[in-house]
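One-letter codes give the sequence; backbone shape is given numerically. An example follows:

. . .
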Amino acid sequence: MLDTYLPIITLIIIAICFGLGASIFSRLIGERKPSAVKAAPYECGMPPVGSAREQVSMKFYIIAMLFIIFDIEVVFMYPWAVMFKQLGLFGFVEMGTFILILLVGYIYVWKKGALEWE
């Protein structure tokens, strides 16, 4: 059974070693010349305006989370579409149920006004 997981474990180890190695290597040979300009927040090349500590509307975060949730749910439809013929009626009913649950969630969010940008 270890033979099936060995390539995955090897890839994870290589990825961790690469990440740690790149971080350590850049820390060892990288130049460190701190300045006020480098410490300033970056705003698309424009001089910073106001404080970086101002509050952001919760509406922004709610819409972002909803987008991610519905986007991830759509990703689950791709394997179903690929295996549609092999799954037959059972797969069709299951995906219909899945989409119905998504639709109920979407209508709930819509009725609560979470998609209204003020």
User: Anything to note?
Assistant: The domain at 56-118 is CATH 1.20.58.1610 (Methane Monooxygenase Hydroxylase; Chain G, domain 1). The CA atoms of residues 49 and 71 lie 33 Å apart.
